[in-house]
Design a protein that fits this description.
homodimer, 307 residues, 43% helix, alpha/beta, seven-stranded parallel β-sheet, 13 helices
Chain lengths: 307, 307
């Protein structure tokens, strides 16, 4: 009898434990398992005035509800002033180790001589994420991203999350491990999606039960023709699966500054960003959210799950 | 008889020597003593795309014929590409130790930990030239301006002259001495005018016979109302004295980027720069040059006087 009781208790305990582990991120956030939860996230804040202006306007529409900031860029001060004036805004840091345009460039926040592995021959961050990841000394990466977080905080930005410009910090296990270590020490969630586990198999081995990650990240890509832009996003929203999705977008105006910045680089260029701006501040997008019962959530909510 | 000969020769030698010393800069350049020679010089290249675009257009008009580049700023690469493609352009370096706008900022080219005296609490150059000069350790200034020259040369810019953004390097004798020492080692002329000797009495004590300096520098100032802009410049050109004058102007378009950059700072702001652009690319300016027999010369010509 005692044996049966002990066995039953053990089974119950096991089932409870499995069920806790199996709780989806949606459920942990207090939503039904089948809720469609969306973060509409604008990258690259601080990069240029055009990016700041378009993203601030989009944030004010309420339809774009999150964004992340590039600390090494010249226009950081403008977006830091916005962050101080709008402490409720869901702003994270877009940790930056690349400087991808050729007409305007940026470099490290930390002392150059301490992060030489991150620099190209001209003293700027490297042009591509693959080159950056291949050359980077992980200790120097840790120094630099910590310096970026410290500068942001010194300017009054209270980041709600961290991600990585051009995905440099996801390029290999060593970089992702240190990224996660820095994020844990800051008690901040990191852009990681369960859907990535199949294409970056080091991810599940580095993540623990205590780390919080979302279900999937969506973004548009250069194979979509400009005239198919709205259709791509509409289809994605109509087919949105339950759980937490982040849609990563790039906002700016198709103006002189942005055209010059991205002149030799139409992908993620000025016209691309104007198209993103137009779709994500449109009534079409607002209606798609309503018609498909999609609820917007923020990284701030996700951050509360971190112990 | 021999005595008379020796005395006559000595007198002749003395007169020749006095006459060499007394040669004006105009004469040393091969022009008549009463020639009216003008450098039309646009400052702040590299600071923003708007500055680069307007200045390149003005240089192409031929009416603006010189400019100087801010190496620490993000848009350096765009103007460096122009300099490489136009090696005849009269481009110098606008050595930069201040970051005067509040919505976008920049910092040193050298390692931060080696130039801490040049930085504000946020890690950028200081906002004003007086603050920068008061706090700057001259050794760190020398390190930083040398690094700026080296970066410019590494990017293929062959500077024809040096000057100092916001005049920081003219704020005191120690800074000016080191500026001149760096310029001499680079065999480059520096923006210095004889007309400044009365207001900065350390200048003549630091300059030697081997240094080359011009007669005067003209610029407009915030006391001139926008509607009096053209009249101010027209009057200055009509009254232009013989010798070498540099007119220092600030070009950009009154566009979104420039308005945001200079939002809290109308002096030298976006509208100011658009007015400068309009006047110095106008037929009015072209006619004033012709009617007043003003000849445009460059720093490249002046640099040839340096031994």
């Amino acid at each position: 009898m005692t044996h049966i009781l002990v066995a039953t208790l053990a089974l119950l305990l096991l089932l409870t434990s499995i069920s806790a582990q199996d709780k989806t991120i949606a459920e942990r956030l207090g939503y039904p398992r089948d809720a469609k939860l969306l973060i509409v996230h604008a990258d690259d804040l601080g990069m240029a005035h055009s990016v700041n202006a378009a993203t601030i306007k989009a944030l004010e529409s309420g339809l774009v509800n999150s964004g992340s900031i590039m600390v090494p860029c010249s226009w950081l001060s403008e977006i830091a002033a916005y962050a101080r004036a709008n402490p409720q805004a869901d702003l994270g840091l877009h940790l930056t180790l690349t400087s991808e345009w050729t007409s305007f460039r940026w470099g490290p926040v930390s002392s150059r001589d301490k992060v030489l592995s991150l620099l190209d021959k001209d003293g700027y961050f490297r042009l591509t994420e693959t080159e950056a990841a291949a050359q980077a000394d992980p200790k120097q990466v840790e120094l630099e991203i910590t310096a970026q977080i410290e500068r942001a905080r010194a300017l009054g930005i209270q980041p709600t999350h961290l991600d990585s410009h051009m995905g440099t910090l996801y390029q290999n296990k060593a970089l992702f491990e240190l990224f996660l270590r820095v994020a844990r020490s800051q008690k901040l969630p990191v852009r990681v999606a369960k859907a990535w586990f199949s294409r970056a198999d080091f991810l599940p081995s580095v993540l623990t039960q205590d780390d919080v990650y979302i279900d999937r990240v969506l973004d548009i890509n250069p194979t979509v023709a400009p005239q198919d832009w709205a259709r791509f996003y509409s289809d994605a929203l109509k087919k949105l699966e339950p759980g937490v999705t982040e849609i990563v977008i790039h906002l700016a105006y198709d103006d002189a500054e942005m055209r010059a910045a991205t002149a030799d680089h139409p992908d993620w260029g000025a016209a691309w960003r104007q198209r993103d701006f137009e779709f994500f501040t449109s009534d079409t997008f607002r209606k798609l959210l309503q018609e498909n019962q999609i609820k917007l959530i923020t990284w701030r909510e996700i951050a509360k799950l971190i112990k």
